[in-house]
Amino acid sequence: MSTTETWTVGKLLTWTTDFLKQHGSDSPRLDAEVLLAHARDCQRIELYTAFEEEPDDNIKAEFRELVKRRSAGTPVAYLVKHKEFYSLDFEVTEDTLIPRPETEHLVLRALDIAADVYKQVERPLRVADIGTGSGCIAIAFAKQFAAAELVAVDASEAALEVAHRNAIVHEVDSRVDFLKSDLLESLPDATFDLILSNPPYVSQAEYAQLPATVREFEPTAALVGGPEGYELIARLIGQAQPRLAAHGKLLIEMSPMLIERQSEFVPEQWTAEVVKDLAGKPRILVLSVAS
After folding, report:
1. How far apart are CA 94 and CA 85, in angstroms?
2. Distance CA 99, CA 82 (A)
3. What does DSSP assign to residue 229?
4. What's this model's pTM, rounded to 2 decimal places?
């Protein structure tokens, strides 16, 4: 990218799209737009009315640095420090997993179940989010379901700080408590109507095959669930059983491969419902103890 040419917004986007494509980006145009909008401190849509404008030298310098880091593999969400999830904007840092669209299916199914349970109990629902990370699951649920009291836990203090800031931004911090805990071990002695989790579920062998943009930047502890991938999930299921109300449900996101192997880690006393993602792949396991 020469500094002597006139680099308009349109030209910057065209050049950067080609550059990022050559460096392995799966969405080079989107990446270029998000990074330039961040450097200009504007909404991405505003770029479309500014194609002929030339950003000042400070903006171009910041943009060049962002593009350099993106071409080296740093995920866009970590560069701009936020990611959209369930139509809400979440702060993310390298202490938190980047929210994925697939996880929205967990929130959607949880909201459906919550509406049915609320009709039965006629009181605020008690909901736990295990491994909250950025807080996206707990906060999205709280925004959509006012009649709920939530506790969101994570083993990472740094992640909990990010999640708490997100709860304040989205004005649900009065209904979401944040707690450092290894799964449910440190939770208050209470039962829950819903326990939600997007836990680590990548096996050690799969981890070695992950794209460098994931493996080298996102927190390993939020990805690897054990040698087979399901060890942590098995612990979660064991801890959840005595903590669920009689009508309670445990919703866990995991890989389609693990859902196919659920008989290896889900005890026989549980009944299971499988929720598929938009690609038609099994993505969410909804578990309840058979009565």
Report:
1. 17
2. 10
3. S
4. 0.93
